[in-house]
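Marked as duplicate of an earlier ticket. Keeping the data here for the record.
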Amino acid sequence: MTVQSFISLQKAGSRSQDWIEMEDYYNRKLWHQLTLALIKYVKTGPHQSGHLSELHKTFLSDFDHRISSLALSNIGLIVSEDIPAGERLEFLEALSKKVSNHPEAKIRIMAKVGSLKIDQGQVEEVQELIKTLEELVNSLGEITPVHGAFYELSAKFYKVKGDYNSFYRDSLRYLGCIDLDDLTSKQKQEHAFHIGLSALLGDKVYNFGELLAHPLLESLKIACPWIVELLLAFNRGDMNKLEQLQPQWSQQPDLARNEVALKQKCALLGLMELTFNKASSSRSIPFSEVAAAVKLPVDEVELLVMKAISLNLVRGSIDECDKVVNLTWVQPRVLDLSQIKEMNKRIIEWAESVEKTVQDVERQIPELLCN
């Protein structure tokens, strides 16, 4: 079918006005205006099955070399959803060659290629692709919309690999590059649920504040409130709440499988919270106080503190003879409102202590001068 025949056929359809406009731009060689009109057209559905693939084959391919690579990639990604599944990968790889001179367009297309390969079980190939795309992404300098496409692919890869730490990191990066309004309610709930799981299961994730402050979590407060409560409990190191919620979280296979690790992680966070709430002048904490805070036998406290020090969650020393832990530092975290209030209280106490010291010194100055 020729271009004119295709346009004439479309003008007889329900969206004739769109095609009259695009025909005018095409005949007058107004490629920029035609590109904008075409992007709007393909984004505005619904379209009959096979229509967009035919549009690309008959109409767009006639002038695709005259429009920007980024616009071509945007249209191509939408069209790819209308390509038969068995031909989609080949279509996208051919498209990536057409936009190879434009880093952002190439990243966008190849990220979709990587996602399809993961779906087809070609996971190891994607690992090399991610390394290549990461170099391209880093070369862009500033954050662009295509960063979201890259981090979405990377997070999907780590999800399949079962790497909770990397999945958590790149999922948060992905959310930082997109507009949440572009996601459906279902997508928001799925993202929030899986990121929440990775935060709980990641053996290097001990900072929940960024996730708890993210608006995405609102989507779970109705759909799956227990996981939000669980994240809040972990953020506080609240072992009692962890036990109260066990009937819910033990129904989730990944959490149930990692029960021992979850309880140890919550205990470590409880130690961090205990240290954080102590004034710097009173961080010599008896084993018994630590044991009560994290609900562990006293004879397991030393191992818990050693684990926390090895993970650089706290710093200090252990006095085994006196059964006391001397902690001097706790790893910085993103704080929630209750923790910020506690920090404010501590700052006020510190300021009052400094003021009292200044007054004491001022009272003693005459005596010191006389002596």
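See parent ticket for discussion. The chain has a mean pLDDT of 91.
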